[in-house]
Design brief:
It is a single chain. By secondary structure, this protein is α/β, with parallel strands linked by helices.
């Protein structure tokens, strides 16, 4: 065989080999190529995240935060359960730290939920890593005491130890010193406010509405969500819906009222 014919035969064999390889590309590799070419794979990313979490529409973007958060001219930190604002936002807060569902971290990340976690050291226990992951996807971490006692009637030293002790724990765990405090059970006295002020707290945060296992309960005022409401998503339900499901139920109520979720720390 001449050299020219041998070269032609070799090139033809290479062409056939390459064609066969192209036809036998692994399906997963092919899917990756489509994604690289701008075809989005199925999944909870992007604009489809809201459906993944049981919502019928995306959450509207929150308004731009106020340039001057609320300021209070008092020696003691104010107690708030509602933020006076015309912005159509409510604020989602979570207490204690008993529930550590990793899928809730996914929910916060995918929906970009600006949530606030009030943590109790004795409840969180060895689970601080879970809340570090929540903080990494945008959650805020604030103070809910070391051991979750009812504060009214405790001496100043005891209340101060509960609040300041948790300030130090959270500072060492997360690198930031909280400035919001929620007293256990939502109860406090003047001594609580004095101790909180001495620990660097600038506001004591309660709630006007609470999302329980199956309903939204209101502590005062009209029985519907209003702009500026602070909402507690809880209490922990050992046998009830998971935290992510209670949150989804609340978000559907928020959307039905023409509201969205704002970041509490932008307003206080």
């Amino acid at each position: 065989m001449s050299r020219a014919r041998a070269t032609a035969a070799f090139l033809a064999a290479v062409a056939l080999l390459l064609a066969g390889c192209a036809q036998s590309v692994d399906p997963i590799e092919r899917l990756g190529r489509k994604a690289a070419d701008g075809v989005r794979p199925h999944g909870p990313a992007g604009e489809q995240a809201y459906r993944h979490w049981g919502l019928s529409a995306p959450l509207p973007a929150a308004p731009r935060p106020p340039s001057h958060p609320l300021s209070f001219r008092s020696a003691l930190p104010p107690v708030v359960d509602h933020i006076p604002t015309a912005d159509r936002v409510v604020f989602l807060t979570y207490d204690d730290g008993a529930e550590k569902d990793p899928r809730f971290v996914d929910m916060v990340r995918e929906l970009r939920l600006p949530v606030t976690m009030f943590l109790t050291d004795s409840v969180v226990g060895p689970g601080y890593g879970h809340f570090a992951r929540l903080q990494a996807v945008g959650a805020s971490v604030q103070n809910h005491t070391l051991d979750h006692p009812a504060m009214p009637g405790l001496p100043y030293a005891g209340q101060r130890a509960e609040i300041c002790g948790q300030q130090e724990k959270l500072k060492s765990r997360f690198g930031i010193r909280p400035y919001l405090f929620r007293p256990p059970y939502g109860t406090y006295d003047t001594t609580t406010l004095r101790a909180a002020a001495d620990c660097g707290v600038t506001a004591v945060v309660l709630w006007r509405a609470a999302m329980t296992a199956d309903t939204l309960a209101f502590r005062n005022g009209e029985k519907q969500l209003r702009p500026g409401d602070i909402v507690l998503v809880g209490p922990d339900e050992a046998m009830g819906p998971a935290l992510r499901e209670r949150t989804a139920r609340l978000l559907r109520r928020v959307q039905a009222g023409g509201l969205t979720v704002g970041r509490l720390e932008d307003y206080l």
